[in-house]
Amino acid sequence: xxxxxxxxxxxxxxxxxxxxxxxxxxxxxxxxxxxxxxxxxxxxxxxxxxxxxxxxxxxxxxxxxxxxxxxxxxxxxxxxxxxxxxxxxxxxxxxxxxxxxxxxxxxxxxxxxxxxxxxxxxxxxxxxxxxxxxxxxxxxxxxxxxxxxxxxxxxxxxxxxxxxxxxxxxxxxxxxxxxxxxxxxxxxxxxxxxxxxxxxxxxxxxxxxxxxxxxxxxxxxxxxxxxxxxxxxxxxxxxxxxxxxxxxxxxxxxxxxxxxxxxxxxxxxxxxxxxxxxxxxxxxxxxxxxxxxxxxxxxxxxxxxxxxxxxxxxxxxxxxxxxxxxxxxxxxxxxxxxxxxxxxxxxxxxxxxxxxxxxxxxxxxxxxxxxxxxxxxxxxxxxxxxxxxxxxxxxxxxxxxxxxxxxxxxxxxxxxxxxxxxxxxxxxxxxxxxxxxxxxxxxxxxxxxxxxxxxxxxxxxxxxxxxxxxxxxxxxxxxxxxxxxxxxxxxxxxxxxxxxxxxxxxxxxxxxxxxxxxxxxxxxxxxxxxxxxxxxxxxxxxxxxxxxxxxxxxxxxxxxxxxxxxxxxxxxxxxxxxxxxxxxxxxxxxxxxxxxxxxxxxxxxxxxxxxxxxxxxxxxxxxxxxxxxxxxxxxxxxxxxxxxxxxxxxxxxxxxxxxxxxxxxxxxxxxxxxxxxxxxxxxxxxxxxxxxxxxxxxxxxxxxxxxxxxxxxxxxxxxxxxxxxxxxxxxxxxxxxxxxxxxxxxxxxxxxxxxxxxxxxxxxxxxxxxxxxxxxxxxxxxxxxxxxxxxxxxxxxxxxxxxxxxxxxxxxxxxxxxxxxxxxxxxxxxxxxxxxxxxxxxxxxxxxxxxxxxx
Length: 855
Ligand code: BGC
Ligand code: BGC
Known about the structure:
Elements lengths: L9 H4 L51 H13 L2 H7 L1 E4 L5 H7 L3 E4 L13 H15 L12 E4 L17 H7 L2 H17 L4 E2 L23 H16 L16 E5 L13 E2 L3 H8 L1 H8 L4 E4 L3 E2 L2 E2 L4 H11 L5 E3 L17 H6 L4 E2 L4 H14 L4 H17 L23 H14 L1 E5 L11 E5 L6 H5 L22 H11 L3 E4 L11 E7 L18 H12 L4 E6 L7 H5 L3 E4 L8 H7 L70 E3 L8 E6 L2 E4 L5 E2 L5 E8 L1 E11 L4 E6 L7 H5 L2 E11 L5 E6 L5 E5 L1 H6 L6 E6 H6 L9 E7 L2 E13 L10
Parallel strand pairs: 1-2, 1-11, 2-3, 3-4, 5-7, 6-8, 7-10, 13-14, 13-15, 15-16, 16-17
Antiparallel strand pairs: 8-9, 12-17, 18-30, 19-20, 19-24, 21-22, 22-23, 23-30, 24-29, 25-28, 25-30, 26-27, 26-29
Helix pairs in contact: 2-14, 4-5, 6-15, 7-8, 7-15, 8-10, 15-20, 17-20
Bound molecules: beta-D-glucopyranose (2 copies).
The site of one beta-D-glucopyranose (BGC) has 9 residues, from loops.
């Protein structure tokens, strides 16, 4: 294997004591790793789409000449600066009320994990106060010629999920299994009401993606792999959030503006890659991926969000044919088209702070969280120079003002004075939770029930195991209080119930006994065991996978132990998608796909037991809206495929009355692609990454340990962490430079991860604190790299204790690393004494505490 890391190490030898220039060898430049210049396919030319093959959707909103006159009148009075301000949406973390006033900004948003004042536990009252502050600034008479109320957008994608105490519903994949459009409308109604209490006007929901490759990290945001459900649900969700067009309730009391996203083809990217490229034909794009927009526009959706992804190699944000000719002209969408998070910056020739092409293609509002001021300035200049036509800007502003007028924002007063505002008792109110609990019950799909072990009589001795049993955060998945849904504890969900809590209550009420033992151990032999396990929370690209094999070895061990002890085993599987779980199915008597049920864990418990008198209260009615793989190599598996051979087909789902015995399933894993570039070390280097130790005399591969660098500057030996030999202890002997690094070729592209604020995360234990500067570098080929100084951080860590050390990718980027071609994700070096153990090394979400780069 040709390795892009030659070890001549002039830089190592030349290491200046304080400069920390630990860049080792100028590596030969990686094989054409930088992105090739984007080639524009014909699809960017509106002539290449055929609008006439797309559906025409009837606008359900009755014409309103008076409103249109007001739009004309308002837009007619606006200055150019005010107009440009309307098309800009900035993040509350980066924009102050005063900025909103000075730049006449049309909108603010909070991203996942964006909280008022950056306070994670911000109270609902804090949110409302913040909404007031932005609103008041936007309508301040001193602010400009025309007072246009600002609109605040949030991702309330499974309930008002950024707010502590809100009702959180199952994620969309679970809702798809319900096959209950009427309940979808009620979920929309509840979500809108809870949003209203905090004064937020606009929901970036529903996601109407039709996910076709379940490796995609957003599969759980999709209702189904099939357009049929998506069309029907999109309609009902829009009606629930916004109200019914043509009635007084439309965008009235307790309603919010809804957004169908992400137009178009987000669920159809090659390999299920987030923000990837959909290579479908135009016909397939229309037949499969447009269904949600037909439903949504037909129900009066006031906003659509454009997709980060590309179609046939061209970024949707720059595709005038799709955005203007198809969506606006042909399908008749007359609301506002908002961009996605800096997605305009990915259009060739654009940056986050300048992108005439996106607005020219049809984007009406830029989602530009951080660089909004520079974008405001460049857009203004582009309108002045004619690069953006004034008519296009006017059209965008008219759309925005029209939506604001329809939503009543001009008359509504400040957010806290609007209906339901401040009625915080509505957050997580009992009737709302009842809707969620019903959704949980109806979303569960019974995949296996050998010997009809379910339903269980409650009056017995029940063992509850698995790391998902008593973890509300895990039940909720991503987009929950934080963007990735990580770092949540049960105490962050007042009023919620874990699955364990639901089970205990049920069992004890019937005179039985229930015990919780995560690892499945027991003293008293249980009559049955319920084991709850599955995927840990993730969002967007962090959830992208190389394959669909559920890698839950520890869970499998629990199931097998119980099975061997002759205890009936009921598996409750938490996941954002169907995964290949044949070994786990084999080791279970019953298996329930519970998806990501949200805050109402007792809804799961309700489905597993009869009433105390033996009567069945709730039978399973969930049916798969995604096909379940039989083989680990079935990566793209959808109803209607030519050689469709799932383990459980689309529509599958047992009821208690069904008597089906599932035969022993094959568990052969050969042929499964495992490449994952975002985990670098876990027990050993994770392929394709390899671990090395080095000093001025050269490098040595550290595949097996112990190992020492040629001149003895640094050595590695195994240490136990989690599992036996799960970590490595690195010991620097001082007096010369030594390095420990991970490398691979070809280089990996971490630009999306960096844009998404991910961090380089290293589990470390400091044995002997550093006596000299220590650097951590990310390398990107010859003469390319960015390093941070870890000295202070390492000295501040509690010695002898495992901790997680995180440095944002952005810090390396700012220091010069090119995230598009990382061949050395980690290079730790020092010329002093240091003993440092490390275990798991990976990319992980960063928290606020890691916001600053090490000094
Ligand atoms: C935000 C998310 C956003 C993402 C975009 C995160 O920092 O919190 O809301 O979707 O960045 O990559
Ligand atoms: C996501 C959108 C979301 C936005 C704001 C983006 O990264 O793709 O779905 O609405 O962030 O959080």
